[in-house]
Amino acid sequence: MNYLLDTHGFLWTAFDVQRLSPLARRTVESPGNSIHVSSVTFWEISLKFALGKLDLTNCVPESLPDVARQMGFVLTSLDAETAASFHRLPRTAHRDPFDRLLVWQAIQTGMILISKDTRVSEYAEHGLKTLW
Q: 2-131, what's its fold?
């Protein structure tokens, strides 16, 4: 199966795996699954780091793609078609642009989004599949 880690899921997997749910942890650690990390996640981390809203211990944002690769994750870019069609994702109470873009990317690519954020469940009727 193909899964897309959201930003906190990626950070927890890399630095504090105990924060994942048991199901999320088994899914990420299963060799039969393909775990993807989006370029959107790296952008969000870099922005929050620059604003002082995210502290990375012994790490800088530039090192995180290598961390993801070393963990066996697939780095997934946001393609032009997905970016251009983002306007089709209905607006809901969930307003975080990074989360919404990850939701749209998961829907468009048919991946299951690994996220603790219960607000993303609003998008199930639009095709989003989640796991936590």
A: Rossmann fold (3.40.50)
CB atoms within 10 A of CB 113: 24
Residue with tokens 């749910």: 21
Q: Which two tokens stand for residue 108?
A: 């468009």
pLDDT at 96: 87
What are the boundaries of each domain within the chain?
A: 2-131
Answer yes or no: is pLDDT of 93 > 80. Answer: no
Looking at the whole model, is its pTM more than 0.90?
yes
The rounded distance, in Å, linking the Cα atoms of 62 and 42 is 8
Helices 97-109/39-50 angle, 10° precision = 170
**Radius of gyration from C-alpha coordinates of the chain:** 14
pLDDT band at 95 (very low <50, low <70, confident <90, very high): confident
CB neighbours of residue 26 within 10 Å: 11
